[in-house]
Amino acid sequence: MRKIPVTKPYFTEEEAKAAAEALSSGWVAQGPKVAEFEKAIASHEGVEEGVATTSCTTALHLAMVANGLGAGMDAIAPAFTFVATENAIVTTGATPVMVDIRRETFNVDTDALARKIETDYEKQDGVVKNKKTGNRLWGFVPVHEFGLCCDIHEVNRLAKEYELKVVEDAACALGAKIGDTHQGGFGNTSCISFHPRKSITTGEGGMVLTDDAAAAKRMRELRTHGSTVSADARDKRKGFLLPEFIEAGFNYRMTDIQAAIGLAQVKKLDQIIDEKRKRAILYNEMIEKTLPEFRTPTEPEGYFHTYQSYVCMLDIKRLGIDTIREGGEYRNNLLQKLEDIGIATRQGTHAVHMLGYYKNRFGYKPEDYENAYACDHLSITLPLYIGMTDDDQAYVVEMIRKTIDEG
Ligand SMILES: Cc1ncc(COP(=O)(O)O)c(C=O)c1O
Fold this sequence. Notes:
Distance between the termini: 21 Å
Mean pLDDT: 96
Largest sheet: 7 strands, mixed
Structural class: alpha+beta
Number of strands: 19
CATH superfamily of the largest domain: Type I PLP-dependent aspartate aminotransferase-like (Major domain)
CATH topology of the largest domain: Aspartate Aminotransferase, domain 2
Bound molecules: pyridoxal-5'-phosphate
Number of helices: 14
Strand order of the largest sheet: 1-12-11-8-7-2-4
């Protein structure tokens, strides 16, 4: 049976060689390769500092803590994202508050965001407070979903108006741009992922990007249990002195083995994005001709989508289906039939408000964030990876057509 995975990492012998060199150097925990990798990623994104971590989830947690998020505070994030966005907020002790997204971009609806603040919050003693709980509104965690930047300029405008913080979840968006500015360059802390489903991978891994050298220093300390070496100890260079621990930090360190692999991967990054963009355009053309039931992904004017994932939406009206719930059943059935013939597809990502923990804790209903709910039920990620051929793409589209026609 012809097998088409939904994605796969792109490795050559360079990554194996890099990992072997790290092993034979004897330095396998965080060391010089991590520092080099941080510089390479920060420089690619046009940002001053990179702080490598074990994952994007830990990068988000680290960035949120360093930006002062904690108990008694609210952080607003989109309802359609990978659960890690909200989980990181919960890990700080803060309360995640959700807003809906736009179906066309899968990104935060900034009008809904503005409405949320106007209706649910009020200014008291110079801070924005939740009218019901009294929690202080800390800020926003916008997501650049699937490799497309959200309307970050509007998010930033709102943050400025209400004097709030922003940590960007750019897990999927390494290399994504608005105009000439890469994610990471919009004036906030941003966090990326090196999970194997992302453009480049270190197995697991993540990084915080920032232009603020003092914040980067603090995050490096927090990443290593809150370890600080006093200026006095550094001056006297007493290597045997243990560091001081003023804060309770974490162990979020990336290894030099991972960073060595990452350094080999980053050399391929532009080529990977370029090829994925070409394949996305080819899918758009094929789908527009063959699959009127599918809505292809959007790339708004001036935006540069990296297509970490190529995510379409089912147009249920064209299929004669009335409700999103039934549309979801149809979509799942379609994905199962494709799986049965060797073509791997996935739903885009989750409506987090419908996931057990969040649904139970906050009593959410599907219609609370109806676009997130619709995208959860009707989105379809098609296979896209380096090494895929035009013929593979034609086969995927042809098999979807056939599966739909056979009913
Ligand atoms: C939007 C988003 N945020 C966070 C994460 C978490 O990334 P990681 O797996 O590196 O922790 C992901 C991973 O898929 C993601 O898609």
